[in-house]
């Protein structure tokens, strides 16, 4: 910007007494318009980057070798929104048979760009905000807005009056009235939480199903097996299928899995799914990416990347495990039998994890409260059961705590004669 500077001698001169210094002014642009301009530039660059430059494998390798730096939140969210739009179109094309499901997954550079967002710091800030005490006069309006936005059923809550909740975090972690979540005694494995079933069934060749058409390896999700016999388990070959065999103690059994996604409006405490004993815990301080079903269908190995607390033990049929997976704004995971667990730490090392062996195994029965999330997230069940175990749910079905997930044939403890005949999905 250029400007004219007048000295005192110039100002005293008659020839300059009536001269006004001209100033160049740039047109003012409102902040939201500036954001739209930069977002448009970023989108144009992304399209060019994806269609032209990223086609060169050597340039891809060069980019992966660079040291990444954090992106501004607004730029990163714009990039995610654009990539999610492209992903939605690809999923629709795959549904019509125009693309293969594998073509809908995010590329490695897209995942790395997503991981650049300061989601861990954002989650810590969100946790701090949700624990701020609200003035009593504002609780009904602030908390009521959240209840209406996410469809929380306060009629089931032990405390229905919103004025009794001092902060938003108390509402997240609300307890329920006694008896509103009866446990189905006809099923040996029941739902640990309120949520939506994303995947279920047997583990296939050492791979778990993240969502329909997207899988991830069991050995990367659990890490080295050092809990089965109290030490590292030796396998004949370092393969996913051999790793699966280390989790099965009885050759007559299969390894089963079930994934339940907790939405923000759901009940945020989780309970024990079966009668079992916890003997071991492994904590992975990973990323805090979103576990929304749309993101789970876009990012491969999502649950392997995210922070998680895996609890292993045994039940009467063999191996049993329940894993609480963290997500964006869900950095806080609390487990009642494990006070040493600290999640969402400021600093952590990639591919690092901590183990804990329980001196005395903690026994849990079906429906017993196990822990809580600060906001909705995901529970992953992996357990050993006899072959032919019946699944009692369907894909995308909403389930409640204590609802039947799996029934084992020829185990009729607590069943009525009608339930023995009809063992189909519980709707």
Automatic annotation (TrEMBL):
The record marks 376-377 as: Cleavage (non-hydrolytic). GO terms for molecular function: phosphatidylserine decarboxylase activity. Its EC number is 4.1.1.65. One of its GO terms (cellular component) is mitochondrial inner membrane. The keyword Transmembrane applies. Its cofactor is pyruvate. InterPro entries: PS_Dcarbxylase, PSD-B, PSD_type1_euk. Pfam families: PS_Dcarbxylase. The active site is at 194 (charge relay system), 271 (charge relay system), 377 (schiff-base intermediate with substrate), 377 (charge relay system). It catalyses: a 1,2-diacyl-sn-glycero-3-phospho-L-serine + H(+) = a 1,2-diacyl-sn-glycero-3-phosphoethanolamine + CO2. Is synthesized initially as an inactive proenzyme. Formation of the active enzyme involves a self-maturation process in which the active site pyruvoyl group is generated from an internal serine residue via an autocatalytic post-translational modification. Two non-identical subunits are generated from the proenzyme in this reaction, and the pyruvate is formed at the N-terminus of the alpha chain, which is derived from the carboxyl end of the proenzyme. The chain crosses the membrane at residues 35-55. Heterodimer of a large membrane-associated beta subunit and a small pyruvoyl-containing alpha subunit. HAMAP family: PS_decarb_PSD_B_type1_euk (MF_03208). Catalyzes the formation of phosphatidylethanolamine (PtdEtn) from phosphatidylserine (PtdSer). Plays a central role in phospholipid metabolism and in the interorganelle trafficking of phosphatidylserine. May be involved in lipid droplet biogenesis at the endoplasmic reticulum membrane. This is Phosphatidylserine decarboxylase proenzyme, mitochondrial. It comes from Meganyctiphanes norvegica.
